[in-house]
Amino acid sequence: MLETLKWTDSGVLFIDQTKLPTEEIWVTCSKYEDVADAIRTMIVRGAPAIGVAAAMGIALGARDLDVTCISEFRNGFGQICRLMGETRPTAVNLFWAIRRMQRRFEEVSGRPIPLIKQALIDEALNIYAEDIATNRTMGANGAPLMPEAGGVLTHCNAGALATAGYGTALGVIRAAVEAGKKIHVYADETRPFLQGARLTAWELMKDNIPVTLISDNMAGAMMAQGKIQAVIVGADRIAANGDTANKIGTYSVAILAREHGIPVYIAAPFSTVDLDTPDGSGIPIEQRAATEVTHLGGKQIAPTGVLVENPSFDVTPARYIRAIITERGVATAPFNESLRKLGQTKAATV
After folding, report:
1. Relative orientation angle of helices 32-40 and 47-63, to the nearest 10 degrees
2. What is the mean pLDDT of residues 55-79?
3. Is 176 within 8 Å of 183 (Cβ atoms)?
4. Three-class SS of residue 231?
5. What's the CA gap between 347 and 329, in Å, rounded?
6. ω into residue 144 within 30 of 0, thus cis?
7. CB atoms within 10 A of CB 80
8. Is the predicted pLDDT of residue 77 greater than 60, yes or no?
9. Which residue from 295, 96, 302, 162 is spatially nearest to 172, judged by alpha carbons?
């Protein structure tokens, strides 16, 4: 399994995704502020991975608190959690992980401080292990939905690099390939940050899964030529009605797929489902730096001073989605009912 992040005594280690695919460099974050910066600058990215990283960052910060009483610990812990919560606004897994670490702190707050610190480290490691297990279960749930043979289009990167390991959308593809299905992946480049070109293609090639890289504006032509039999993507937040926020450009892909009669699947852990947000209009959309659009590889490609819009995500309405694949099962329309039902279901294991 491709490792993307890990806990060590010296700090939290991340493979630097901003350097891929030409350099495989590991970054050591020895302080919780470094972890927050790694999330903010997309050294680590992908909603599940952000959640795991935040949990580890909180555990790291808590471990290093130099305090003598629980009130001081509580104040320091609160500051750590607040900083983590300010890194990326759209990925709901971030806030899910923060809340889980906060709950664990409250459960053990009556213990001696060294035991509190160890409990928080253990909780972060549990979140890490559970993410990998979740992805494998999700893969098993989604593999039957993939074609026996043919092309599957994906947008952005929802693989091991976006999780603690194995992947969400790419995890489903991996599971389908492991089951003997003959799948050829078409990876959108995913402008402007090029996660498909830099990360998805790299990851699939490492696993010897056939992959063809295409520019974002080729997707419709590939569908019209009959090269695409299914679309599968990850998610950063899924509203209660099934509206799904994913990397910018996903909405366009979904419309094209509908025009060509191609099913669109979302693969995400249930922690990505936000039942408190009724529909996609309530999902905050992160705006990123204009230079991601105006520059490529450090070289300016647009006129100086041009106005730029750079939302990192868009929202695909539920009507364009065939099914949402989670570790708890597969939800189909009406999603308001099926997602709430899954919310009451304990995840199966593989």
Report:
1. 160
2. 97
3. yes
4. strand
5. 8
6. no
7. 25
8. yes
9. 162
Bridge partners of 287? 311
Measured on CA atoms in the order 297, 303, 305, 308, is the torsion positive or negative? Answer: negative
Whether the Cβ atoms of residue 36 and residue 61 lie closer than 8 Å to each other: no
Asked whether 243 and 272 are in contact (CB, 8 A), the reply is no
Q: Which residue in 82, 42, 46 sits closest to 61, CA to CA?
A: 82
Q: For every residue of 253-318, which 3-state class applies, written as one string?
A: HHHHHHHCCCCEEEECCHHHEECCCCCHHHCCCCECCCHHHHEECCEECCCCCCCCCCECEEEECH
Amino acid at 120: L
Task: Collapse the DSSP code of 75 into the 3-class scheme (helix H, G, I; strand E, B; otherwise coil) and give the result.
Answer: helix
Q: Using one digit for the tens of pLDDT, what is the confidence trace for 94-110?
A: 999 999 999 999 999 99
Residues 6+ apart with CB under 8 A from 346: 328
Asked if the bond preceding 114 is cis, omega within 30° of 0, the reply is no
The residue type at 100: R
Which three-class secondary structure state does DSSP give residue 91? coil
Residue 73 has a pLDDT of 98
Give the CA distances from residue 255 to residues 31, 48, 63, 192, 239, in Å, rounded to whole numbers and listed in that order.
Answer: 43, 26, 48, 20, 19
Exposure pattern of 188-199 as b/e (b: 16+ CB <10 Å)? bbbbbbbbbbbb
Supply the pLDDT for residue 2. Answer: 83
Q: Measure the CA dihedral 204/248/27/300, to 10°.
A: 110
216 is catalytic: no
34, 236, 274, 314: the catalytic one is: 236
Task: Give the pLDDT mean for 283-299.
Answer: 95
Domains delineated in the chain: 5-136 (1.20.120.420), 142-343 (3.40.50.10470)
Select from 238, 239, 234, 244 the least CA-distant residue to 268.
Answer: 234
User: What are the beta bridge partners of residue 314?
Assistant: 246
Question: Alpha helices, DSSP H only, in the chain?
Answer: 32-40, 47-63, 70-85, 92-108, 113-142, 169-178, 195, 201-206, 219-224, 250-259, 291-294, 335-343
Average pLDDT of every residue of the chain: 96
